[in-house]
Amino acid sequence: MVDTPVSPAGAGPLPDRSVVPPVWGRITNLVVDHGEGSWLVTPEGERYLDYTSGIGVTNTGHAHPRVVAAVQAQAARLLHGQQNIVYHEPGLRLYDRLARLLPGGPWGAFLSNSGAEAVEAAVKLARVATGRPAIVAFRYGFHGRTAQTMALTAAKDVYRGAFEPLPGSVYHASYPYCYRAPGGAHDPAACTCDWEAQLELLFHQLVYPDKVAGIIVEPVIGEGGYIVPSPTFLPRLREITRQHGILLIADEVQTGFGRTGELFAVRHWDVEPDIVVMAKGIASGLPLSGILARRDILDRLRPGSHGGTYGGNVVACAAALATLDVIEDEDLVANARERGRQLVHGLRRLAAGRASVGDVRGLGLMVALEFVKPGEGDGRMPDPELTKRVQQACFDRRLLLLTAGTYVNVIRIIPPLVTTVEEVDSALSIIAQALDAAGAQGPTE
């Protein structure tokens, strides 16, 4: 790697990378020139298979031609039309289209910039609509890095540990993490986790259910370890929230827009939440987020009680419309299902006989390997060192992957939804080599 690549625009050597503050924890020191589909390309022409998707953002791949064309066309017309001041065509069309993405409703949308902002909007709406103060979230969940969303987050200590005190009236319930259940790992299809009893205990010990405005949940846990719940979890949670008049908020920031093999993950279980939080995959990389809420709930926000300067930016809205077109026209939701099955089946073959691979799990193209120390404790002791070695060995072979999990012992695999059979096979071959290079143990080692 050349330390100071020259800009193709002829602006001279790039500044030293130290200009970027170290708070941005890094997995590589790559300088990237451009992206195309599932690939990132350096100025020297080195190609990396990007199975991070910018943390689940580039669902349509890097620089999809139709999205690029929509951005270019809109940028030549209008860059910013602030929502308090004017309407613009891309925004009106996107608001209308989003409201028709889910059954039930009728739905309405509110647009903002980031996932955390959208979660903030959902919490504010839930409190206004119910007149109640408290919010319940789940352990292992991640909802953002603003003060309110840090209070909701319980994925791991680094996200909130240095920033107390945080906003109050937030309580954390138990999530059904079947691999790490106290009674032993088990198949989520035969879940024995006591999450419902723990939620009932929370209502008896800490907060009255009639004081809870909303329960926010990731349908599949993201940063906390790519945890797929039992099939009964969300339907039963929906029943409990309705019983107590609590709004159900589905945080689909990472699971949305086809990632799990449904446009929104709640559709796997035919659950209709009251509020859906969305971001990441909505606009193929441009900053855009929002919420969908039942219109009778959304209209409880009085004019001026919430907003933002850049929310629903006109160029980002144009990108989102093009993104939805690509997802529909190229059948990317089905591709996510098919390539996800290919990936999970391949990983399970690789994991067979390796006791240090504790679990392989996933839904659609949201897939994880959990690494453990098989000779310690009950065999489920997290092994973050091995996880880091596997990640590095993949990078050395030009495959980009991210980690996750409370103990950072999970490799998460997040391909663009445009990825191909051949690319998945290539990734599996690299992961097999990486497991060997990193010393992922078999049962007799």
- What string gives the helices and strands in order? EEEHHHEHEHEHEHEEEHHHEEEHEEEH
- Please identify, by name, the CATH architecture of the largest domain: 3-Layer(aba) Sandwich
Q: Please report the total strand number as a whole number.
A: 16
Question: So what's the overall shape?
Answer: globular
The main β sheet shows up as: 7 strands, mixed
Radius of gyration: 22 Å
N-to-C terminal Cα separation, in Å? 36 Å
Query: Quick check: average pLDDT?
Result: 95
Q: The CATH topology of the largest domain, please?
A: Aspartate Aminotransferase, domain 2
CATH superfamily of the largest domain: Type I PLP-dependent aspartate aminotransferase-like (Major domain)
Coarse structural class: alpha/beta
Number of domains: 2
Identify low-pLDDT runs: none
Q: What is the CATH class name of the largest domain?
A: Alpha Beta
Oligomer: single chain
How much of the sequence is in beta strands?
Answer: 15-25%
Neighbour order of strands in the largest sheet = 4-10-9-8-7-5-6
Discrete helix count: 12
Helix content: 25-40%
Descriptive terms for the model:
alpha/beta; Aspartate Aminotransferase, domain 2; Aspartate Aminotransferase, domain 1; seven-stranded mixed beta sheet
What does this structure look like?
The chain is an alpha/beta fold. The chain is built from 12 helices and 16 strands. α10 runs parallel beside α12. A hairpin with a 2-residue loop joins β1 and β2. Strands 4-10-9-8-7-5-6 form a 7-stranded mixed β-sheet, sandwiched between helices. Strands 11, 12, 13, 15 and 16 form a 5-stranded antiparallel β-sheet that branches.
